[in-house]
Specification:
The chain is mostly helical. It has one domain (3-285). Helices cover 76% and strands 0% of the residues. It has helices spanning 3-29, 35-54, 64-87, 94-101, 104-115, 122-139, 149-173, 178-200, 209-245, 249-260, 267-285. Mean pLDDT is 82; it is low at 287-298.
């Protein structure tokens, strides 16, 4: 297996991990667990798992400047993306929020092309368009229902922030192993959500056996595995190809929702998933060399 295909597999694995998050959040909410509390435990439980994956505390070696950047900037960026996207659900349906958020591959491609970091080829544009068509088929048109401005701003804001955060995270990581960099970022996000949940008095609210199990799955799969896989794949493929491959996430979420939440899967979902798969195949069969990012000095 070539490094590019291995990296593509890692990105697809990460997308499935992230796609599991919304299902877990929905199940936990049914038990009265708040978003802040669930994210607190998701990130807090993930930190020791990432430390183990890195090889222990002795492996968490980084310059003070890089460690602080990952904890503060990385942690706040992760927190902001999570909060913007999920809080938009107060005004928007999940389908509408999903459509708006999954415009982020287009933002990634535009930002990378403007910055001169990656080439925006016709193949990439075609694969991106095909993936966005697939997402539209799956979640439906956002114009089929009224869209309050507050929800639209948050959903699109999450897409733009994530598009900027994805390549920034790669640069902040520098020469660090993916598990090491992830441990610092997740520790920063955990601190923010712990403060929020504690101040709200909801940290332990509703945390019975099932929510604890959900929190652990989100920590292990949707955070530990997903972050390491995403960073390793991103280092090989670059931000644009990573973003396009990640559009498999809503397809995975839909399938998982049908299995665990008894949500209906229609022909539009199947057609949308086929478009996304076609975009992934097209992208992988016509790989384009990436203009590498220069890591900042240690």
């Amino acid at each position: 297996m070539t490094p590019e295909r291995r990296a593509a597999g890692l990105i697809l694995l990460a997308a499935c991990g992230y796609g599991t998050l919304s299902i877990g959040t929905t199940l936990a909410a049914r038990h009265g667990v708040t978003l802040a509390a669930l994210m607190s435990w998701r990130y807090t439980l993930a930190v020791p798992l990432l430390v183990i994956a890195a090889g222990g505390f002795r492996s968490l070696r980084a310059s003070p400047a890089r460690a602080a950047t990952l904890v503060i900037v990385g942690g706040l960026g992760q927190t902001l993306v999570t909060w913007l996207s999920l809080s938009a659900l107060q005004w928007l349906t999940a389908a509408t929020m999903g459509f708006l958020f999954y415009t982020y591959p287009a933002w990634v491609a535009v930002f990378a092309a403007v910055a001169g970091l990656e080439r925006l080829t016709s193949v990439r544009v075609g694969a991106l368009a095909l993936a966005l068509v697939g997402i539209t088929l799956m979640v439906g048109s956002p114009w089929s229902a009224p869209m309050p401005l507050a929800g639209v701003v948050r959903a699109l804001g999450a897409a733009v922030v994530y598009a900027l955060y994805l390549p920034l995270l790669h640069r902040m990581r520098g020469p660090l192993e993916a598990s090491v960099a992830s441990a610092y970022v997740i520790a920063g996000a955990a601190a923010v959500f712990l403060v929020a949940a504690t101040s709200q008095g909801t940290l332990f609210r509703g945390m019975t056996a099932i929510p604890w199990a959900i929190a652990f799955v989100l920590a292990a799969f949707s955070t530990t595995v997903a972050f390491i896989a995403m960073l390793r794949g991103l280092a090989v493929l670059g931000a644009v190809r990573t973003a396009i491959l990640s559009t498999v996430e809503p397809f995975w979420t839909t399938m998982l929702g049908a299995l665990l939440l008894s949500q209906r899967v229609g022909l539009a979902t199947i057609a949308g998933g086929a478009c996304i798969i076609a975009a992934i195949v097209l992208l992988q069969r016509t790989a384009v060399p990436v203009i590498p990012d220069a890591p900042p000095p240690e």
